[in-house]
Design goal:
Length: 469
């Protein structure tokens, strides 16, 4: 994309996005038809990529294809997944494939199709700081333009009335294993880098997969399928009490509706924290199809009368870890329920230990005097996904996938991307730019439901309040 034109306090943008992952890409796609809205989105990477290290053959997105960037808010939008298929002359093959859940690689290709054609996206731009300029009543967004080698090439600044942060998540490495990840020799890596190291892992004598969620299951299954029968030499361990199936019942999935997000946001902070801790099977477990594939592959390897050399142990945490000479790793394990401890020597470790929200504090240090925090020192987020700021700030800073503590398990879910983006756009424009449904679930999550604000009056109801923003 071409560089964005410079802005001054006299020519501010309406909205600037920081980060171009699926969520800000959704926002950009829904904003595209709104000709009166001036937007720009910045991303430090040279192009769009969605978890490239986990695009394993056969791995599927865990939400239906309708949870694309736009459809659940604007089915007629030109950046829909179905329009992507039409542009590729693949509508009829997709129709006959009868797929509800598409491969991850296909979702990645769809997003890259959008990112490569949608105007207003500026890759190789690292946002350095976001500040509030009280004199002009605008945000200042400072960025560094990067060259093809990722080195600083030029500095820039844009002014905007609103900012939306979609900086995403980063791989989480448990503290006991951090010293091993960066050390040379024995491969100890996060699953985010799995495909780049897959050949070395398949050649390793013994491999341990740590993490009992969907990614751990997919990595374990891929390794299992490509290692010799009887010489699999695999361990799969995780902290959860079981290799448990994801909650996929129809009513259970209603926890990923706007109705539940609104209900969750209305709860007190201690109740929200308690609920999140107990809802791990909604988002940290494994889909039943993958669990069945693991069992089927293990069973197939028993047909000659033997058992595969694969050990699966749930309810286990890694206490500490160290190196055995220079070629192996030793994991010190503890069984949570048994209270027993053991040691496991292995030649490679894949950490399917999930992701954590990237901290926003470095980016927002210039806004620190205006930020409001909750009892656990987390940024407060209102119902429209705006950070709660001092009333002196007339603009808004929105967040995407940084509000699980305030909006619940649906925050990182692709199925809520279009609805959240549309909510943000409706708030920014002050009108119903993207009409949204008033009800989305059969379940009533509370005894007293908050009344739905009619769309025509919704924008008027979203004005900042000094004591309750």
């Amino acid at each position: 994309m071409t560089n964005p034109p410079p802005t001054t306090p006299d020519t501010p943008r309406d909205l600037v996005g920081v980060g171009i992952g699926p969520f800000n890409l959704s926002l950009a796609a829904l904003a595209h038809p709104l000709t009166g809205l001036d937007t720009a989105f910045y991303e430090q990477q040279p192009a769009f990529h969605w978890h490239p290290g986990l695009l394993i053959d056969g791995a599927r997105v865990q939400v239906p294809f309708l949870a694309d960037l736009v459809t659940l808010a604007d089915p007629a939008n030109p950046w829909s997944f179905l329009n992507y298929l039409r542009s590729r002359d693949r509508l009829f093959p997709f129709y006959f494939a009868e797929r509800l859940h598409i491969p991850r690689a296909e979702y990645d290709d769809y997003c890259r199709w959008v990112a490569g054609r949608l105007p207003g996206l500026h890759f190789r731009h690292h946002v350095d700081a976001v500040r509030w300029n009280p004199e002009h009543g605008l945000f200042e967004v400072d960025f560094t333009q990067l060259d093809a080698e990722g080195q600083a090439e030029a500095l820039g600044r844009t002014h905007t009335r609103n900012v939306v942060l979609g900086v995403g998540t980063e791989p989480h490495v448990p503290a006991p294993l951090k010293p091993l990840v960066d050390a040379p020799g024995v491969p100890v890596l996060h699953a985010a880098d799995y495909l780049a190291h897959r050949d070395a892992l398949l050649a390793a004598e013994h491999v341990t997969v740590v993490g009992s969620g969907q990614t751990g299951a997919e990595v374990f299954l891929d390794l299992l399928r490509h290692r010799p029968a009887g010489r699999e030499r695999l361990h799969w361990i995780g902290r959860t009490p079981a290799f448990a199936p994801m909650e996929y019942s129809k009513l259970g999935l209603e926890h990923f509706t706007p109705d539940y997000s609104r209900f969750f946001h209305g709860l007190t902070e201690p109740v929200r924290d308690r609920l999140l801790a107990g809802q791990w099977q909604l988002h940290k477990a494994v889909d039943a199809e993958t669990l069945a594939a693991v069992h089927e592959e293990l069973y197939r390897r028993t047909l000659d009368g033997g058992w595969p050399d694969a050990v699966l142990i749930p309810g286990v945490r890694v206490r500490t870890a160290g190196r055995l000479a220079t070629t192996r790793v030793e994991l010190h394990l503890e069984h949570v329920d048994q209270g027993t401890r053991s040691r496991l020597g292995t030649d490679a470790v894949v950490l399917a230990t999930g992701y954590r929200e990237r901290p926003l504090t470095p980016l927002l240090s210039g806004l620190d005097p205006y930020l409001r925090r909750d009892g656990s020192d987390r940024l407060r987020v209102d119902a429209q996904f705006r950070l709660v700021l001092d009333p002196a700030v007339s603009g808004a800073v929105y967040v995407q996938n940084a509000e699980r503590h305030s909006h619940g398990v649906g925050a990182p879910d692709l199925g809520l991307a279009a609805w959240r983006s549309a909510t943000i756009l409706n708030t920014v424009t002050g009108e119903e730019s993207c009409p949204l449904p008033g009800r989305t679930a059969f379940t009533s999550f509370g005894l007293e439901q908050q009344p739905q604000i009619p769309p025509a009056r919704r924008a008027q109801a979203l004005t900042p309040l000094a004591d309750g923003r």
